[in-house]
Every structure is written in C-alpha cells, then in structure tokens.
Specification:
It is a single chain. Strand 1, helix 1 and strand 2 form a beta-alpha-beta unit. The protein is an alpha/beta fold. It has a single domain, classed as Rossmann fold. InterPro entries: NAD(P)-bd_dom_sf, SDR_fam. GO terms for molecular function: oxidoreductase activity, acting on NAD(P)H, oxygen as acceptor. Keywords: NADP, Oxidoreductase.
C-alpha cells in the first residue's frame, strides 16, 4: 500500500462526509475532521486511535480554516489532501428569496470553502496534493427553488477549474456525488413540496421510495479514492462520481 497520507475532510460527522472519512481511515490514512457535531467527531476519533483529530464548529467562523490546517501539521506533520464536503441547501424561489438568504448560503457553500482551500494551499504545494470539491448536479441543471444552492455549487466548479489552471502542482477537481441518501435528501422531501416544481419534487420522493438513492459509501468511496491517488489529467474537471473518467476509482 502507498505511504500514509493526511487529509482534511469537512462535513465529516455523518452522511457522505462520514463515508469519505471512514474510507480514508480504513486505508490507514490520517484525517483531520470537522463538522458542528462534536459528539460524532469524538466517536470517530475513539474508533480510530491515533488516526483522527478534529475541530468541531461552523465553517463560516473565520478561524476555522487556519485551525484545521494547523492541526493537520501539528498532529500529523503534513497535508496531502482536502475534501470540501460541507454545505447547506435552501429551497426558495428567487422571487421570494432575500439577498440575505443568498449571502448566508454563499457564506457556507462558497466563501468558507474558498477560505479552506486558500488555507490549505501552502501545505498542499509541498506534497503535490489534491483538493476534491463536492459539487452537485444542480450546478449544471436548474431546479425550481434551488437558485441559491445551484449557483453556489456552480461557483465551486469554477473555483476548482481556475485553481487547477493556477496551481499546476495540485490536483483540483469537483465531483458530483449524485442523489445521496443523507439528511439533505430528507430535507428536500420534507420542505421542498411548496417551493419546488411538482414533477421535480415527486421525482426526488420517488427516488427515495423506490430505493434509487445513492448510498453514501458508493460515491463517498470514489471521492476518497480520488483524494488518495489523484490523476493529474483530472485536474480542472467537473465530474459525476460514476462518470467514465472515474471508472478506475469505482468499485
């Protein structure tokens, strides 16, 4: 097996982020995890002695990116990869949504992600490391009520592509994980009925009831494998987790 690597994973306490972190740990790598749920992060640390450190908190806090990067170096001596997985969804039609709603969502989905990437860059240059930005199909396809969320993910796609052009030694790629069976999908089913297009909303509900949602481990393991062993030809690309370009990373 390849030498042990060190990763920062955001939104790592449950769902897709937890699946990514657990795969990395299962391959004997080290993880600096972050999320708002301290108890879940502590459980992850206890389950993997010597492999996990964490900072519990909100990624929009200005000191979070620096704290995570410094913890990786202090605890494990290096940083090889960053998986930017945290984010939130607001389902409101543009005409009914305030500028403040957009600003708040962009603070989470865009600006805190950018700040995390900027903080990690000096260390990732040393290791020719990798940033995987977790994107969404909503970055490419319009869903009624998702203008804030979809546009924020489109910004991540663009940031990743620009970073790849500017930082030739770092692999920067966005990966869409698909409709993953997580809390965000539950949120869509519980609160999206009034704001979404009826047919689109029912399609999301039917995907759940018919068992067609992607398991967190399916796309999460692909994302983790890319972070561990990134191919340079992927840098700057915006890919689906099950795309042909990622066939070698799929089970």
């Amino acid at each position: 097996m390849a030498s042990t690597k060190v990763f920062i994973v955001t939104g790592a306490s449950k769902g897709l982020g937890a699946a990514i972190a657990k795969y990395l740990l299962g391959q004997s790598h080290k993880v600096v995890a972050t999320a708002r749920s301290a108890d879940l992060l502590e459980s992850l640390k206890r389950a993997h002695p010597g492999q996990v450190e964490y900072v519990a908190g909100d990624m929009t806090e200005p000191k979070m990116p620096e704290s995570l990067t410094e913890l990786a170096i202090k605890s494990f001596g290096r940083l090889d990869g960053l998986v930017i997985n945290h984010g939130r969804l607001v389902s409101e039609r543009m005409a009914n949504s305030s500028i403040e709603t957009f600003k708040n969502l962009y603070d989470v989905n865009v600006f805190s992600a950018l700040a995390m990437a900027q903080s990690a860059l000096p260390q990732l240059r040393k290791t020719n490391g990798c940033i995987v930005w977790v994107s969404s199909g909503a970055a490419r396809n319009a869903y009624v009520g998702w203008s804030a969320y979809g546009s924020s993910k489109a910004v991540l796609n663009s940031l990743s592509t620009h970073l790849a052009a500017e930082e030739k030694g770092i692999t920067s790629v966005t990966i869409e994980p698909g409709r993953v069976d997580t809390g965000m999908q539950a949120q869509i089913r519980s609160s999206g009925k009034d704001s979404m297009d009826k047919a689109e909303y029912e399609d999301f509900v039917n995907a759940f009831t018919s068992g067609k949602l992607v398991k967190p481990e399916q796309s999460g393991h692909v994302i983790a494998r890319v972070a561990i062993d990134p191919r340079k030809d992927l840098s700057g690309k915006n890919l689906k987790w099950n795309s042909p370009e990622l066939a070698s990373y799929q089970e």
